[in-house]
Amino acid sequence: MGLVPSKWVLMLLVCWLCKNVNSSSVAQKIYVVVKNTVPCVRLLNATHQIGCQSSISGDTGVIHVLESEADLEWPLSKGPNPPYMVLLESSLFTRSIMMKIKNASSRVAGVAVVIPTMSPPEFSPHTTCPNENTGVYSDSYGPDYAHCNTTVWNPRGNGLSYEEFDFPVFSLKEDNETETIKQCYVDHNLVENGTTPQYPLCALQLFSHMSAVTDTATCMRRNDVINFSINPEMVCDPLGDFNVWGTIRPYNKSELGHRDNDSVVIAAARLDSRAFFWDVATGAEGSVSGFITLLAAAQALRDVTRESPPTHNILYAFFQGEAFDYIGSSRMVYDMEKGKFVIDLNNVHSLIEVGQVGLRNGSELFLHTDPVSRMNDSINDQVKKLVTNLQSSNAGMNVSLVEPGVSQPLPPSSLQRFLLAQNIPGVVLGDHRSAFNNKYYGSYYDNAANLNLHYPDNLTTEEQLEFVTETAMALSDVATVVARALYKQAGGNESQVNNINADPKTVTQMLFGFLVHANNSWFQARIPPDMKLEASPPNFYVGIASPLLAHAKTLTKIVQYLLANLTGTATNLTQDQCKKPDDLPDESEQMHSYFWIRGTFPTNGTANNTLCVRASVRMSQALSPAFDLREFASKTYSTWTESRWKFIEARMFLVASRDLEMLTLGVGVAVLFTSLLVTYFISIKADVLFSSVREPASAAY
Amino acid sequence: MTLSVFFGCTFIAFGPAISLFLFTIARDPLRVIFLIAGAFFWLCSLLLSSLVWFITVQISNKESSSQQKGLLIFGVVLSVVLQETFRFGYYKLLKKANEGLLMLSAEETMPISIQQLAYVSGLGFGFMSGAFSVVNILADSAGPGTIGIHGDSQHYFLSSAFMTMAIILLHMFWGVVFFDACEKQLWWALAVVISSHLIVSCLTFQNPQYVGSLVPTYIIMFLMGFWAFICAGGSLRNLKLCLTCKDKDFLLAHTRPR
Fold this sequence. Notes:
The complex is a heterodimer. By secondary structure, chain A is α/β, with parallel strands linked by helices.
């Protein structure tokens, strides 16, 4: 090439050096991925499917920010560009709006809910009568009490969690991403009075296609097909996790079934909770208040049960999966019935369950009992003794224990599953006389604020950890009452009772860890060195069952280590000895569990305080017996499963009008036909058109 | 956007090229072979220029946007230069191949003339160039969204498709003119081809002012098309004859016994 092209090149370079050159990929120009979203997923049980479903290639809808219930008219009937993606503020996330949207689902592609940081005045997506079909009350046992005929436990419940929606519902946080979405709506979709919005319009696409359909029996049958199909894919998984249980006198874990002359007082609490959206359950009043109280009571009882052991053994049981038709407690009862647990039902002396105890009105704490079992005189006497033990345990405490005045059934509680199997005297402690005091039962808003957990400003994380809140004081009073009553019920020495006191410091540290900040020094010191904790509170959703102990939920593991720490003893074993204690003459893995824990919060330069803790604390599988028995349509056991999915995403983009798209297609087809015609014409007439050929002899056509 | 946009843009971008292929090239296996070989040569030039660009980008300062812009311009210019170099190389290769084919074949005349080779190789370059320009964009056009959420122009897909159609046709015209200039040793014609290629490529830096890049490109395309028509043996007289349907008389009148 000569000088001329290089001159051109230089000129061009100079001319265009200041031009704006952008080299991003095309997909980045089109889509904005919304990252901080939580979907609602599909759950199935013996008869129904609940939750949300999207189509396999996502559901796209033009964004419409709903301003009021009357504004629903626009997406449901008036709007000219269906389908719509309705964006709701949480105050509009009500049953009536969701049902209207559900009935008009051809015009609505999906719903996005903006979850605020401040809770609404009340919101409970759970049903009004939780676990009504798997409790003890049925047509044959206390028919007047079945299905909440006497007392509606959760009157604020709107049942949204148990509805089936065939469009996706996602939740968004109140952050910059949501602002971007609303800004896009304002820029492109907002309609002035009378005019229709012009294309291109801002749209949102939600992907949350669920593989499982109909009910658990169908999805488990489809799971079984994987043995025969070329492309095996499971479609659902049963819900479940592990129960944590511990005793004050150890049991040999290989001696299962009935124990002669052994009588055990069971102290129970539930661990889990649920919310409308997947995997974001917080359960402050619903479960945390109960199990923290029980853990504090276990700590209070440690010393006195060693110095003056009571006659009966005490078993602390923390059940997982109770929110889903009593997965944990039904499993433990089943194991006891089949002789697969260290004790059986005939060894159970009585049961005290700590229910929702965080929101007391004044000083009253209610003792719920089962009126049907009390028709039996001996049970009635034992229950009365139990109630007396409880009522006399409140010396010096700001707790007055009251029985609810009316003949009232038990609230939803694990005791109901024990009563289904055997008539056992039992009491459920609760802060509510009849309906729950909890305004956010089974909801994402059941958080620290619901328990009135407030810390003064300007405290560091460590200072907040140590600060004893009023909630902690109240709960530790309840824990003291529970501990004393358990000791008395187990036949302990009466003179020692008033020495039993729960430690408010422990209670406040646990409250902080489970509801505010899990990665704190108190928790860190009591868990193994290789276990990692997130800063945010643990997730209280029971999740998918796994047979491996190592895959237990973080919540379950933390509770196990805490129970071990609060009821066990520190030993001098080294790490290797801790892993294999059977090598030593005095230690036995059959009788105890051995945990290697960190000892102190890891900071630079401090000595390593890791130690081995020996405790009689174990985990037992909490998987519904329906799955072992393969009775997937069981009416008595929990049959909850969670669907599987391929991927879940939300993204935002602009959509063009149908007319422009059709025009593009039309132009394309026109160009194609024109070029076909012209080319045909040229190729036919090529002889004539290209006849003035410069090389006459070598023409070949 | 959706499937309708996908098909619309595909037809716009590849419509003329497909119809040319169907009616003029598909029947003759020799032409198909040379088309594919031409496409391969373009691919080699792209490989080389992308290698150079990749290395320079890795060496450069990724933070400085002006340096990246400069690098992009350099990359475009280098790519154009390499494409034309490979076109010249393909011409040399075809000349040698033609002599060889003539020796092997039983007939006296060459099975394929150099003008036809020019046309076929140009179209091959065009196909491959068009594919690389637009297939990536077409893939994203099949989704539900259209460009615009970050403020870019909505007409991206349409203008890319029209640009690709122009580029494919331009490659064909450049091929014809280039080979003709090489045959007749008209170096100024070569320079015009290369410089018009550079102009068209650099016009794309005008995007997103699509009018500014498409209109001049189409003007250049029509001019080059006319020049290629002349080089290939056409003339205004022939065109008039064809269009007024006097061609049969013309052929009859001018057929001489050979």
